[in-house]
Amino acid sequence: MNELTNCFHCGLPAPDGAALVVAIAGSPRPMCCRGCQAVAQAIVDAGMATYYAQRTALPGAPGEPLPHLAALAAYDSPALQAGFVEAPASDASGTSCEVNLMLEGITCAACLWLNERHLAAQPGVLAVDVNFSTHRARVRWDPARTQLSRLLRAVAAIGYRAHPFDARRRDALMQRERRTALWRFLVAGLSSMQVMMYAVPVYLAGEGDMTAADETLIRWASLALTLPAVVYSSAHFFRNAWRDLRLRRLGMDVPVALGIAVAFAASVWATVTGTGEVYFDSVTMFVFLLLGGRYLELRVRQRATDAVDRLGAIVPAVADRLPDWPASRRSEAVAVAALAVGDVVSVAPGGVVPADGVVVEGDSAADESLLTGESLPVPKAVGALVTGGSMNLQSPLLVRVTRVGAETTVQTIVRLLDRAMSEKPAGVAQADRLAGRFVAVALAAAALTFAAWLWLEPARALWVAVSVLVVTCPCALALATPAALTAATTRLAREGVLVTRGHTLETLARVTDVVFDKTGTLTHGRLRLGQVLAHADRSAAQCHALAAALEQGSRHPVALALLAGRASDAAPLPAVAARHLIGLGVEGALPDPHALAAAHAADAAAAMAAGIPADTSGGTLTLRLGAADWLAAWCAAPPPADLPTGDAGTVVVHLASARAWLASFVLEDELRADAPAAIDALRALGCRVHLLSGDQAAAVAAVADRLGIEQRVARASPASKLDCVQNIQGIRNGEGGAGLPPGERAGCVLMVGDGVNDAPVLAGADVSLAVASASEVAGASADGLLLSGRLGDIAAAIRRARMTQRIIRQNLVWAIVYNAASIPLAAAGLVSPWLAGLGMAGSSLLVVGNALRLGR
Amino acid sequence: MESLYLLIPLSVLLVGGILWLLWWAVGSGQFDDLEGPGHRILMDDDRPVPAPPPDDLR
């Protein structure tokens, strides 16, 4: 039955199911709106109804009306295309252009299939390649037969959005980096497998089974196959080691390069001269295991970078520039990249501001939630600053551009996140320091061994010393930390926690105090209808229906709260011609059907009694919904004495006719449903929980009481928030405050926040997480992003971070124990090449296997 | 054991051949998307793609 009442395309309730229908695979399916109907029809017409059978998730948003071809036509201008379209290339089959598109609205694999098929079916499209893991498409088309705008419109027609983007810079770089790393890894892998194939018979052969000539042949074959692994695959180990040595420091690459070089050189010498032992199998396996670890690390880092790239895509590619303003309002579409400081651009309602700037004309409100986390629309009048990427909500604005390109806020965030992600984790740095000491020990052990054997048995001295250096190849040591961090980061990303700093996992494990911000963190930062107070003799539900009817179709947060607050089985709303007045409210004339008649009669009676002429002309009732002052100036009746006023965190709107106050609606910020469970989980981990908020004491107390948080601070300014956090850390009174030596802290603080005013606290805390609607500064100064928006993931992340530290410690201990135990054995001349190879593979696999437990 | 003198050089050449194959595969992006083709083969219907409806220029 659900099928009949919910939109078949997007799954939202379809209010008048019979009116909008699309025949899909032979049966009529209800649609909730014209947008969905158009999208579904386009999908069916293109012969791709299979999508509905294959999809595993509903589209993220209902279908939207098709953008005008004219609006997209700007994408066809050569000046704009220069930014992201690869120049037309001519070959035997004619000319072709190529563009990279970022697809938006993808929820499951069927969506990607749909996009690919649909684009491929457009006339003039030569090739389409949709990448399922990055949600990007590469399209090549014949400019003589179609235009880019038609392709974009084709994607829009099936309910998705495509943004062209410049893949040449970073993407191409990342792709090259990824392919090179993979190729190196494969070369080392293949050569290690084949060399092992040659080595095993030699190890297993009994005395006299193999002639000296056979063995020489096998050695030369192994040498030939080891060469690419050493010369090509491990080239960057040598380069990095050389750089480290020149800078007079010892990183992990120095012992690695040393191990490879010594083992390989000794084996080549042995092969050429026909003496001693060969370690070709150990060398190739060593390189193979290390490159495997590095490749996985690279993939994790690139995925995090991709998430940041999408942030940059919120700024549109095209802007409407008014070149002659104020003399003329002639506008031209230009590429955002071509905008210069001082240009005036117009931003239509519903449009995205293309760059940072100042409003020079117009009066509207902007949704900056994506950038600042501020959930309420921010009023924008002449002189106000607007940020590129925010959405203009109400009326057209003219904006004078003040910052372009790399200077804009969005690009700054992208850059900051980029830099954060390229930082080396402290744990890895620590392993590097360990490696430095390790090289010294290995070299000393080899030298001592050589000296001792020179005295005992000079003929074996060199080979025993070499075997000491080979068994001390720090393979397990080099893999111990990165393998664990990579496994944990991947796992957390899958759960919706994006780690953006190197030290995050390490510090999370030590957290003793968790400090929450209230608005937007423990609460949704989104209005919800709390209370309806009916003033006249109408019921609260009736008043609510009237208010919802006035607000239907509006995207204002108050409207959304009023509409969302209605019961799902409520009667359909009557159509209303509503007029929105910015900053005041909405006015509309409702038809007066039977449902209202009774109330209206009462209204008329009340009006009669008060001596006010009734305005029932035309059978409509004019109502206003909005701020108290605005209504008081219009309504003939005085405001009721018990009119509620909003305090912080709540918004109150009133409904009135020209003669009577009907109702007041109290809208409040809603507590996240998972907050209590998340707080309990954190307590179970032994963390103290605090609440810090800039909100009014009453609002903070209400939330804290419901969650059972004892430590709470209300009306905190950014500075006092930082004070509180430092107080918990025990460093409030400067160095050595609270009787602690410098550097030592009473508590390790995790700050969870989202708003702009949290930025200093997020930076001041030991480690910080920003909740999904990552605001600009918060996102940049936080150590991790809670993309899932589930507060319960905080406790899960702390648990996983602690486990990661445990596993890193285990890995390091194991690697050191293994190497320490093998040095005496090798020095005693007891380690043959097969034992060295086995030991290295065994210890490395143990370390990696242990790390993989984190990913489970 | 004389066969080794033929088989071992042969295996070295074989590895060279496989390396060339892998080089081609990496370079042509065979490893760039490891999820897509799996879905693609399941969802591809064999019916020919019908011509899309004429694009009305609004």
Helix and strand layout, with pairings?
The complex is a heterodimer of chains A (856) and B (58).
Chain A: H1 2-5, E1 21-24, E2 27-30, H2 34-45, H3 50-54, H4 69-73, H5 78-81, E3 85-91, E4 94-104, H6 109-121, E5 125-131, E6 136-141, H7 148-157, E7 161-165, H8 170-204, H9 212-233, H10 235-246, H11 253-273, H12 280-312, E8 318-321, E9 332-335, E10 344-347, E11 356-361, E12 364-367, H13 369-372, E13 378-380, E14 385-386, E15 391-392, E16 397-403, H14 409-422, H15 426-456, H16 458-471, H17 475-495, E17 497-499, H18 504-508, E18 513-517, H19 518-522, E19 523-534, H20 540-551, H21 557-564, E20 577-581, E21 585-591, H22 594-610, E22 620-626, H23 628-632, E23 650-657, E24 661-671, H24 675-684, E25 688-692, H25 697-707, E26 711-713, H26 718-729, E27 749-753, H27 759-764, E28 767-771, H28 776-781, E29 784-786, H29 792-827, H30 833-852
Parallel strand pairs in A: 18-25, 18-27, 25-26, 27-28, 28-29
Antiparallel strand pairs in A: 1-2, 3-4, 4-6, 4-7, 5-6, 8-9, 8-10, 10-16, 11-14, 11-16, 12-13, 12-15, 17-29, 19-24, 20-21, 21-22, 22-23, 23-24
Helix pairs in contact in A: 8-9, 8-12, 9-11, 9-12, 10-11, 11-12, 11-16, 12-14, 12-17, 12-30, 15-16, 15-17, 16-29, 17-29, 17-30, 20-21, 24-29, 29-30
Chain B: H1 3-27, H2 36-43
